Amino acid sequence: MAGQSSARLTLVAATSTPASSALAHAPANRPNTVAVGTIVWLSSELMFFAALFAMYFTLRSVNPGIWAEESALLNIPFASVNTTVLVLSSVTCQLGVFAAERGNVKLMRRWFIITFLMGAFFIGGQVTEYTALVHEGLTLSSSPYGSAFYLTTGFHGLHVTGGLIAFLLVLATTYISKKFTHDHASRAIVVSYYWHFVDVVWIALFAMIYILR
């Protein structure tokens, strides 16, 4: 009898072990809700820019003469330099993210400050270009081309400005807080999503406006 009872106890223990170990496992990590929300929001922003692209191509198809004449006013070498600076800012931004993931707040700040300055350079270049084009007579209301040009590049410029503000906020929180935490790193990653997005959109805009014309 004692042997049978011992065997039954051994069998019960063996069959209950998998269930117990399963319950002992740590819960699966869930995606960061802020990051997921940012990606969803950027998807809606992509639709917004898609509408601007559609507007640009529609106006160009019905005004080919105006497009050929007024697109000649663009300073392509200047815009190319400006574009290069913005694209390279994605590299510095990502280097800042890598530093944040390692918990190196000083290096993250350095790369994010460089990224901010490069983004500010881009906005300054865009303002310079606008000033030159206005002196040439190309304004928002001067022609369909002017409307399409300023709306597409202007809305993108506003998004870049928003990204610059986001960098300042992320940097400010790291200076205010005494300790660099996982939340700080998460904010840096989320801002990088946005920055990479505006950079990719600009590459498409540059190809559409300055190359295809």
List keywords for this structure.
213 residues, mainly alpha, Four Helix Bundle (Hemerythrin (Met), subunit A), 85% helix, elongated, disordered N terminus
- CATH class equals Mainly Alpha
CATH architectural label:
Up-down Bundle
Helix content: over 70%
**CATH fold title:** Four Helix Bundle (Hemerythrin (Met), subunit A)
Order of helices and strands: HHHHHHH
Helix tally? 7
Q: Could you explain the architecture of this structure?
A:
With 213 residues, this protein is mostly helical. It has one domain (34-212): Cytochrome c oxidase, subunit III, four-helix bundle (Four Helix Bundle (Hemerythrin (Met), subunit A), Up-down Bundle). Helix content is 85%, strand content 0%. It contains 7 helices and no strands. The chain has helices at residues 2-24, 33-62, 64-70, 76-101, 105-135, 144-176, 182-212. Residues 1-30 have low confidence and may be disordered.
SSE topology sketch:
Elements: H1 2-24, H2 33-62, H3 64-70, H4 76-101, H5 105-135, H6 144-176, H7 182-212
Helix pairs in contact: 2-6, 2-7, 4-5, 4-7, 5-6, 6-7
Task: Put the structure in a nutshell.
The chain is mostly helical and 213 residues long.
